[in-house]
Design a protein that fits this description.
This protein has 345 residues and is α/β, with parallel strands linked by helices. The protein has a domain of 203 residues: 3-Layer(aba) Sandwich (Rossmann fold), CATH 3.40.50. It is built from 11 helices and 11 strands. The protein has an 8-stranded mixed sheet, with helices on both faces. Helix 3 packs across helix 4 and helix 5 packs antiparallel against helix 9. The radius of gyration is 23 Å and the shape is globular. The N and C termini lie far apart (60 Å).
């Protein structure tokens, strides 16, 4: 992994390109861009050691606005492009910028396989529950019954849950944050930056043009305390504007309780464990307001070998045993033919 330099200090401006940022005024993407640049500047790693790879969608303009290496690839294939890039350049800090449509619809298969392989990349999935770039069609994460241009009578699809998908693919790092919660946003991005392996981060991102207010319960400062629980490893799952509500595990079921009622105390609450059994993390990931608070923060963080690391060690082992090889010899093989123009004897 690339390490910070001791003789160079970086600012946000070092990571900002000379391109005009062109998202709709008020879009949550601005907040994410600002947070990423701030975190990277603080990390002290040169901009030329980063690569941002995106697919297609509003979020996928991101590489243009970073003064780093980057690629605006094709729809749903940012994960595939990033896989090839990271294997060839394991020294680079590789980030994938994608949206709910790009990563979970046309790119769903690629996303699942990248996560299960545990490639050492960071995935920031901007989830606004709508197709914004193509002007307001429903997406894989749109809620059941959502009325859009492509579902005028309401969607009859059950929404896909990004964190559940990531957990099912054995993700080694799973997190969620909110575009309009800058301090929390930067902390989760920072944790993802430090993780060795695939760091999958869902970001509640407001599309104020085609799906305004979809995450108001988590974005509004006044509403957030009663509708969101900020996960902290080793801390009881407590929330509420008065910090008087919490989550308990009753058998295999999560329940919301009020402290002080029926003798419930903080000692009865479920303690968040980033390395807990997947079944617990599945339940937490699927909590959703108004029945439950939405869980934000780092849900899961475990260590396991990375795909790029294993591939490159495998290559090194084979080279040590058989030598570096000869590409031309490999292409021509054991037998060759010369095709002439017919004038040869």
């Amino acid at each position: 992994m690339t390490t910070a330099t001791e003789d160079r200090k970086f600012t946000v401006a070092d990571f900002a390109s000379n391109q005009d940022v062109r998202w709709c005024p008020g879009c949550g993407d601005y907040s994410v861009l600002a947070a990423v640049k701030k975190v990277l500047a603080d990390e002290g790693i040169p901009p030329e050691q980063y690569a941002f790879i995106s697919g297609i969608g509003c979020s996928s303009r991101f590489p243009y606005y970073m003064d780093t290496y980057g690629m605006h690839s094709i729809h749903g294939r940012a994960t595939a492009v990033a896989t090839g890039f990271k294997i060839m350049r394991p020294d680079m800090q590789t980030w994938i910028i994608t949206g709910d449509g790009d990563a979970l619809s046309i790119g769903g298969n690629h996303t699942i396989h990248l996560i299960r392989r545990n490639l050492d990349v960071k995935i920031l999935l901007f989830n606004n529950e709508i197709y914004g770039l193509t002007k307001g069609q429903y997406s894989p994460t749109s809620p059941f019954g959502k009325v859009t241009k492509s579902t005028p009578y309401g969607s009859v699809d059950e929404p896909l849950h990004p964190l559940s998908m990531a957990l099912a693919a054995s993700a080694s790092f799973v997190g969620r944050t909110v575009d309009m919660h800058p301090k929390h946003l930067m902390e989760v991005i920072r944790r993802a930056h430090h993780h060795k392996g695939t760091a999958f981060v869902e970001i509640y991102q407001n599309c104020n043009i085609f799906n305004d207010g979809a995450f108001n319960h988590a974005q509004d400062r006044k509403l957030r305390p009663d509708n969101v629980i900020e996960l902290e490893d080793g801390k009881p799952m407590i929330f509420g504007s008065k910090q008087d509500k919490g989550i308990v595990l009753d058998g295999q079921t999560l329940k919301v309780v009020t402290l002080g009622e029926n003798g419930v105390t903080a000692d009865d609450l479920l303690v968040h464990d980033e390395k807990a059994d997947l079944s617990i993390h599945f339940r937490i990931a699927r909590m959703r307001s108004p029945e439950f608070p939405d869980a934000i923060g780092v849900l899961r963080a475990v260590e396991r070998d990375t795909y790029d690391g294993m591939i490159n060690r495998q290559i090194e082992t084979v080279i040590a045993k058989r030598g570096p090889g000869d590409l031309q010899k490999l292409i021509t093989g054991r037998s060759t033919w010369v095709v002439g123009n017919g004038d040869e004897d």
